[in-house]
Design brief:
This protein is mostly helical. It has a single domain (7-191), classed as Cullin Repeats (5 helical Cullin repeat like, Up-down Bundle). 73% of the residues lie in helices and 0% in strands. It is built from 9 helices and no strands. It has helices at 7-27, 38-50, 54-77, 81-105, 107-117, 122-151, 158-171, 180-184, 199-215. The N and C termini lie far apart (72 Å).
Length: 220
C-alpha cells in the first residue's frame, strides 16, 4: 500500500527532486552525462499522479519551464548580431533535446491528467511554450539575419541554417510566408510547383550560387 503523500510532502520532498532534475535537463549540453536517476524521477511522478497531485505538478512544471525560457529569451536579446544565429540555434537544440528526456519522465501525468482531463499533450504544450516565450519574440530579429547569412555563403554552417529553418517550421509552419525561398531549401514542397515560365529564373539563381561558390574557392 502506498503511503499517503500530502500536499506538504509533495512541496517539501517530491517537487524539489523533480525541480532539480528538470533544471539539469534544461541546461545540459548535448552529449553531457547527467547524474540523475531516471528511475527515481519516474517513480516520483508516478506516486504523485496516483495521489492526485497531477494538477499541482503540471502547474509547477509549466511555471518552471516558462521561467527558464524567459531567461533564455533575455540572454538572446543581449547577444551581439554576429553571435545571434548561433546562440538561437544552441537554445533551440538544447530545449528540444531536453524535451526528449522530460516528456518521457512525465508520461504518467501526461496519460492520466493532460490527455484525459485537458485533452492535450505534454510535448505539444512544452513546444508551444518555446514558440511563445522565445521564437515569437525573436523571429523578426532572426529572419533578416538568416536571409543575410544565406546571401553570404559560409557565414554560418549549412547544418546551423538547416536546424533553425526546420525548427522554425516545426514551431509555426506559417512562418514560411516570411521567407519562402529560404524555407524551400530545407523543407520539401513548401512552394507551389515550378512553372515552365519561371525555369529561366531558377536557372539564373542556380548560376548565381555556382558563381558564389567559385568565388569562395570551391571548384566546380
Amino acid at each position: 500500500v502506498m503511503n499517503v503523500i500530502t500536499i506538504e510532502d509533495y512541496k517539501s520532498t517530491y517537487w524539489p527532486k523533480l525541480d532539480s532534475a528538470i533544471d539539469q535537463l534544461l541546461t545540459q549540453s548535448p552529449g553531457d552525462y547527467i547524474p540523475i536517476s531516471y528511475e527515481q524521477i519516474y517513480s516520483c511522478v508516478y506516486k504523485c499522479v496516483c495521489q492526485q497531485h497531477s494538477e499541482q505538478m503540471y502547474s509547477d512544471l509549466i511555471k518552471k519551464i516558462t521561467n527558464h525560457l524567459e531567461r533564455v529569451s533575455k540572454e538572446l536579446q543581449a547577444s551581439p548580431p554576429e553571435l545571434y544565429i548561433e546562440r538561437f540555434n544552441i537554445a533551440l537544440g538544447q530545449y528540444m533535446g531536453a524535451l526528449q528526456s522530460i516528456v518521457p519522465l512525465f508520461i504518467y501525468m501526461n496519460k492520466f491528467y493532460i490527455e484525459t482531463k485537458l485533452n492535450r499533450d505534454l510535448k505539444d504544450d512544452l513546444i508551444k511554450l518555446f514558440t511563445e516565450h522565445v521564437a515569437e519574440k525573436h523571429i523578426y530579429n532572426l529572419m533578416p539575419l538568416l536571409l543575410e547569412a544565406q546571401s553570404t555563403p559560409f557565414q554560418i554552417t549549412p547544418s546551423t541554417m538547416a536546424n533553425i529553418v526546420k525548427g522554425l517550421y516545426t514551431l509555426r509552419p506559417e512562418w514560411v510566408q516570411m521567407a519562402p525561398a529560404l524555407f524551400s531549401k530545407f523543407i520539401p514542397n513548401v512552394l507551389p510547383p515550378a512553372v515552365e515560365s519561371e525555369l529561366q529564373e531558377y536557372a539564373a539563381q542556380d548560376q548565381k550560387l555556382q558563381r558564389e561558390l567559385i568565388q569562395n574557392g570551391f571548384t566546380r
